[in-house]
Every structure is written in structure tokens, then in C-alpha cells.
Specification:
Elements: H1 6-9, H2 12-19, H3 24-51, H4 54-71, H5 74-79, H6 87-111
Helix pairs in contact: 2-6, 3-4, 3-6
């Protein structure tokens, strides 16, 4: 279970800059896209790490960090650079992703 506070997971200023004043349908579309892309790239990073594929790891880290930066998911951004050598580290990355997406949705809901 991931226990970091929502304020540590997302940058409220980045969320406000991206979503502030946006209609709820567009917010929902962006949040769904962020969730899908974050999940895809987290899993691609995990698979590349397990396979020892350094090139794919680099690609996945870069893509995941870009998504995190665009959506203000600061802690997940930092975790992307971490070592994934243990199964616990992979699960921590997934838990951080899930908590970050939930915190992002909550922050956007707070704007509306």
C-alpha cells in the first residue's frame, strides 16, 4: 500500500495550469489518456528491466517521465529514475503510479 500524501504526489500548480478553466469532458479525456499512457509506460519499463533491455528501459523512462512532467506527477517522475532490481521496487513503482493517478484525479476534481 502506497502511503504518500496527495500533496507529495502531484504539483498543484502544474495541475491548475493544465486543467484550470477546462471543461469537465475535456478534463476526463485528458485524465483517461494520462492513466492509459502512464500504465502502458510503467509496464513497458518493468518488462524492459526484467529482460535487461537497456535501450527499451531508457525509452520507457523517458516517455514515462514526460507524461509525469506534463501532468505534474512529481513523485512518480522521481521514481522513474530509480533502480528496479527487486520485485518490491517494481511494485512500489506501480503503487506510486496508481496513487499518483488517484491524486491527479482528486486535484482536478477540486478545480471544478
Amino acid at each position: 500500500m502506497f502511503s504518500d500524501a496527495p500533496a507529495q504526489l502531484v504539483d498543484s500548480q502544474a495541475v491548475d495550469a493544465l486543467f484550470g478553466g477546462m471543461d469537465s469532458d475535456t478534463c476526463d479525456l485528458l485524465l483517461d489518456a494520462a492513466a492509459a499512457d502512464t500504465t502502458e509506460w510503467t509496464e513497458r519499463l518493468a518488462l524492459a528491466w526484467q529482460q535487461g533491455n537497456a535501450e527499451e528501459q531508457s525509452r520507457a523512462r523517458h516517455s514515462l517521465k514526460g507524461i509525469c512532467g506534463n501532468f505534474g506527477m512529481t513523485l512518480l517522475f522521481d521514481r522513474c529514475a530509480g533502480t528496479l532490481a527487486a520485485d518490491e521496487a517494481l511494485q512500489d513503482l506501480r503503487d506510486c503510479r496508481d496513487a499518483s493517478l488517484a491524486a491527479l484525479r482528486a486535484a482536478v476534481s477540486g478545480l471544478q
